[in-house]
Write a structure and sequence with these properties.
Keywords: Hydrolase, Signal
Low-confidence stretches: none
Structural class: alpha/beta
Signal peptide: 1-24
Bound molecules: 2-acetamido-2-deoxy-beta-D-glucopyranose
Organism: Stichopus japonicus (Sea cucumber)
Strand content: 5-15%
Domain Alpha/beta hydrolase fold-3: 115-238
Number of helices: 14
Shape: globular
Oligomer: single chain
Protein name: Putative neutral cholesterol ester hydrolase 1
Order of helices and strands: HHHEEEHEHEHEHHHHHHHEH
CATH superfamily of the largest domain: Alpha/Beta hydrolase fold, catalytic domain
Distance between the termini: 67 Å
Number of domains: 2
Radius of gyration: 22 Å
């Protein structure tokens, strides 16, 4: 009996911890939010538990275990109802795994194409975790959708995911007609890390003169930089949620960025990023940094609020550390902000109605 009560108490404590009731104001679907936040916590716990039994880099092990838990939870849920009649097949576009979604309406005309890159911090989930949205896009737009199943970090760190993403897009642009798709009506898009891949791949396509231009790039709350984790949005988030809470907290983004850059988020890297000290003071004062990432470039409304405490000091940072990693951070494939010429990229940040209008 005593043991049972103890188990019950531990179980309740765990459940209370996981279903932490703090839900920020302004969120309408409070239970949905709670469930998503709870599942993130649960995955993290599974990851930590797993890493106790494995040796090597703990941060990488947590990430790997978290991925396994996410796939277990999401990849086996049936989402066929999201796009009735849409047919999914597997493909391999020059070495990159993809899923291809064919809409039900058949006609002799070439279809528009939509290449989707899923989110998950480049570290969680697979293309199949986003099967529902791929089916929905295919069915609603009557478009052929390619859902790209790139490999996750830390095993596939920078520039691995970019190479796989570009290989798939290049292949599809050159072979679109074989799939009944008009190569002049192909868009790329994705959420979060998928937005980052879409932006970067659009740059690479634009620069490769053997390829037709993409029709459109759609970035849904994209991840675009790993140099400053104290932008007003990060400050607002940290004020409104508890530290480490919520769905995409500063700590989470730092983990994703570190796993992408170095294949590890060990404390020495993580702690530097928490204070923006991974970037050297000299670079923070450079023209490139000032023209792309200075807080003064943001609209006033972001900086005039009660949560904003100003940018982190520009003289903070470690010049020696920066020298060892700046090659990665300055690469526009890692930081799309640093692309010099943005002309002709057909970028859209909001996509309501737009996809339909542009592709059809
Ligand atoms: C296929 O990938 C290789 C590199 O792996 C690349 O050299 C080649 O250009 C790609 N071909 C196409 C058609 O994308
Ligand atoms: C923000 O504050 C500055 C001065 O502190 C003021 O000039 C500006 O009009 C304010 N902007 C907004 C959008 O409130
Ligand atoms: C920027 O790119 C556009 C289109 O790709 C090109 O026409 C223009 O000359 C470029 N500008 C510079 C300064 O290189």
């Amino acid at each position: 009996m005593g043991r049972f009560l103890l188990c019950l108490a531990i179980g309740c404590a765990l459940l209370a911890y996981i279903l932490n009731p703090s839900v920020p104001d302004g969120i309408e679907e409070r239970w949905k939010y709670r469930l998503v936040a709870a599942s993130f916590k649960l995955y993290h716990l599974v990851g930590v538990a797993y890493s106790v039994f494995t040796s090597g880099d703990q941060s990488a092990n947590v990430a790997i275990a978290t991925q396994a838990a996410v796939c277990l939870a999401l990849d086996h849920v049936s989402t066929e109802h999201e796009g009735p009649g849409v047919i999914r097949t597997r493909g391999n576009f020059n070495g990159t795994r993809v899923y291809i979604y064919q809409p039900p309406q058949s006609s002799d005309e070439l279809l528009p194409g939509f290449i989707y890159f899923h989110g998950g911090g480049l570290s969680m989930g697979t293309a199949l975790s986003f099967d529902g949205i791929a089916r929905k896009i295919s069915s609603r737009l009557n478009a052929l959708v390619v859902n790209v199943d790139y490999d996750n970090t830390p095993k596939n760190k920078f520039p691995g995911p970019i190479r796989q993403a570009f290989a798939a897009v290049k292949w599809f642009l050159l072979h679109a007609r074989e799939y009944g798709v008009d190569p002049r009506r192909i868009a790329v898009g994705g959420d979060s890390a998928g937005g980052y891949l879409s932006a970067t791949v659009s740059h690479l396509v634009h620069d490769d003169k053997t390829l037709p231009e993409l029709k459109l790039q759609i970035l849904i709350y994209p991840w675009t930089q790993c140099l400053d984790f104290h932008f007003p949005s990060y400050q607002k988030y940290t004020k409104e949620f508890e530290v480490g809470e919520g769905i995409v907290c500063r700590e989470g983004m730092i983990m994703f960025c570190a796993l992408h850059a170095w294949g590890s988020a060990r404390p020495e890297l993580f702690d530097r990023m928490m204070t923006n000290s991974h970037v050297g003071p000299s670079f923070k004062k450079s023209a490139l940094y000032q023209q792309t990432l200075a807080h003064g470039l943001l609209p006033d409304s972001y900086r005039n609020s009660s949560y904003y405490e100003g940018p982190s000091p520009s003289d903070q940072g470690d010049e020696e550390f920066w020298k060892t990693s700046k090659e990665i951070f300055l690469d526009p494939r890692f930081t799309p902000h640093f692309r010099k010429n943005m002309t002709g990229l057909r970028l859209r940040l909001r996509w309501k109605h737009l996809v339909k209008r542009t592709l059809l």
